């Protein structure tokens, strides 16, 4: 046997990197501080689209408008779940990984912290002059006296034969640990809110009401542990809605204030109470909060069919097309009209003004001169009984529908309708009347049991990180021999040596002072 073969046989064999080793490596990587910071950054980065892209649960009208204006872009947004960022699968994946990473960080940190609390300060070094901070003075200071004076400075003290060891600044580690626990608490609070909370959106027109039931919502997003019986049984009625606008200056037309005047019943048996709902003043009923998130106009129409019967009468909420002027698009459907169903595409102008080319626009968002433009009228089958879902803001008539050319005030001039005016449809199909204007508001009702715990956890995180950044771990050692007192000090926090110099000088003064001065 050759020397090379003998060396190969005697060399230790390397073990295979099996499944257990891979799992151990993955857990160490996931629970490292670097990974936790990366995941926290990704969570914050993933929240950015939730602020820039309209969310279905908050602004469904803007989502619908984006589909109309840029359908291709809207489809890509929907493909990547950007319309529902905070309930998307990729956001949940980052959330769960961060949750696991923080648990892996907190548990060993807590064990280390408990060991540090039980551990006594180390004995004083024999040569204190080698420490970053050192001084020596003559005096008859005793070990017990030095220990007592350091305890008054809130040091943890250990004494020995001719020496004293003192340490303080443990709140730094406390703050560090509680910061990680607070982050974990925030994630737990968010998870509890997702499981046991719910939110929903609803549109309410002036004069109408809303009861907090599943069927009443336009959009309802419950947690997995929420049932229909979990909803707080309150109801409200919108009696009036007022918006004030800037009327002069460069910011003319800018909204200044929104006020929704409600009649609220906290329960079916409770009497009605008045409440003024504002953007930053939500309605709260036993932990369920209702926010004002949008508003618009709802013109009131009456449709008379070809047989002289009223086929529709009521307010039609319009979708805002131009926010600065509140020009809005309206869709009116009269499925009960005879002999054929009727549908209308309209545009509402709050402050209608004519242009030189004969067109009309809105010059102000307030309803100073409200008028309605009739864009198109149709008769035939609206497709409401086909079983296919259809948006209330879209009129998608089949090819069999007939487009009508109505007479506006007896002429062919497409002049907008003012309140009280009407449009006669040709061929005796009926008549459309513009009766007046109401306003609508959109509400978001939310119940989140993790809201208060998340606030407490966030406040704890802020206080904890302040403690971690402001407090320094430092040690002071005293050796007494033959009337000479040597005092040394050092910090255990990187970069804080300069700040400790002044404190060390004050500690030396306290040790060198007489018993009377020390008190």
Task: Characterise the protein shown here.
The chain is α+β, with helices and mostly antiparallel strands. It has helices at 3-10, 19-30, 33-52, 60-69, 71-79, 89-118, 143-152, 170-196, 451-470, 497-512, 515-518, and strands spanning 133-138, 156-160, 163-168, 198-205, 209-211, 219-222, 235-245, 255-265, 273-277, 283-285, 288-305, 310-315, 319-322, 327-334, 341-349, 352-354, 360-362, 371-380, 402-404, 407-408, 417-418, 422-425, 430-447, 474-481, 484-491. Strands 4, 6, 10, 11, 12, 20, 22 and 23 form an 8-stranded antiparallel β-sheet that branches. Strands 13, 14, 15, 18, 19 and 21 form a 6-stranded antiparallel β-sheet that branches. The chain has a 5-stranded antiparallel β-sheet with strand order 1-25-24-3-2, covered by helices on one side. Helix 3 packs antiparallel against helix 6, helix 6 packs antiparallel against helix 8 (170-196) and helix 8 (170-196) runs antiparallel to helix 9. The protein is elongated. Mean pLDDT is 85; it is low at 407-413 and 515-519.
């Amino acid at each position: 046997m050759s020397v090379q073969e003998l060396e190969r046989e005697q060399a230790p064999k390397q073990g295979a990197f099996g499944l257990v080793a891979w799992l151990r490596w993955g857990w160490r990587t996931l629970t490292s501080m670097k990974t936790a910071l990366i995941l926290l950054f990704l969570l914050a980065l993933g929240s950015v689209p939730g602020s820039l892209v309209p969310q279905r649960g908050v602004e469904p009208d803007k989502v619908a408008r984006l589909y109309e204006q840029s359908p291709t872009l809207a489809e890509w947004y929907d493909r990547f779940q950007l319309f529902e960022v905070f309930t998307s699968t990729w956001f949940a994946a980052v959330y769960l990984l961060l949750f696991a990473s923080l648990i892996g960080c907190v548990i060993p940190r807590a064990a280390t912290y408990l060991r540090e609390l039980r551990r006594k300060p180390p004995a004083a070094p024999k040569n204190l002059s080698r420490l970053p901070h050192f001084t020596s003075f003559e005096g008859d200071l005793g070990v017990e006296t030095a220990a007592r004076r350091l305890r008054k400075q809130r040091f943890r003290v250990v004494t020995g034969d001719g020496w004293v060891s003192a340490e303080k600044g443990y709140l730094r580690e406390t703050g560090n640990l509680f910061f990680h626990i607070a982050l974990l608490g925030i994630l737990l609070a968010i998870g509890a809110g997702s499981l046991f909370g719910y939110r929903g959106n609803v549109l309410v027109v002036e004069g109408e009401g809303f009861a907090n039931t599943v069927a009443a919502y336009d959009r309802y997003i419950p947690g997995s542990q929420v049932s229909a019986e979990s909803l707080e049984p309150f109801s409200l009625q919108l009696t009036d809605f007022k918006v004030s606008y800037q009327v002069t200056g460069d910011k003319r037309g800018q909204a200044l204030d929104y006020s929704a005047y409600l009649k609220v019943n906290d329960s079916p048996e409770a009497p009605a109470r008045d409440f003024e709902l504002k953007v930053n003043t939500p309605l709260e009923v036993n932990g369920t909060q209702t926010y004002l998130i949008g508003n618009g106009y709802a013109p009131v129409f009456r449709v008379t069919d070809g047989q002289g019967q009223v086929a529709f009468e009521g307010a039609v909420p319009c979708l805002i097309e131009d926010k600065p002027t509140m020009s809005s698009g309206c869709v009116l459907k009269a499925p009960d009209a005879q002999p054929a169903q009727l549908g209308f595409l309209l545009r509402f102008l709050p402050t209608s003004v004519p242009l030189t080319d004969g067109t009309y626009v809105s010059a102000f968002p307030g309803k100073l001169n409200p008028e309605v433009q009739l864009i198109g009228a149709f008769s035939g089958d609206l497709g409401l009984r086909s079983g296919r879902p259809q948006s209330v803001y879209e009129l998608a008539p089949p090819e069999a529908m007939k487009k009508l050319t109505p007479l506006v005030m007896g002429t062919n001039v497409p002049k907008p309708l003012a309140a009280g005016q009407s449009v006669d449809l040709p061929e005796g199909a009926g008549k459309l009347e513009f009766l007046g204007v109401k306003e609508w508001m959109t509400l978001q009702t939310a119940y989140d049991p993790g809201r208060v715990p998340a606030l407490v956890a966030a406040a704890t995180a802020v206080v904890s990180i302040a403690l971690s950044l402001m407090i320094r771990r430092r040690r002071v050692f005293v050796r007494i021999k033959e009337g000479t007192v040597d005092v040394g000090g050092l910090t255990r926090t990187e970069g804080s040596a300069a700040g400790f110099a002044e404190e060390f000088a004050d500690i030396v003064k306290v040790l060198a002072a007489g018993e009377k001065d020390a008190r």
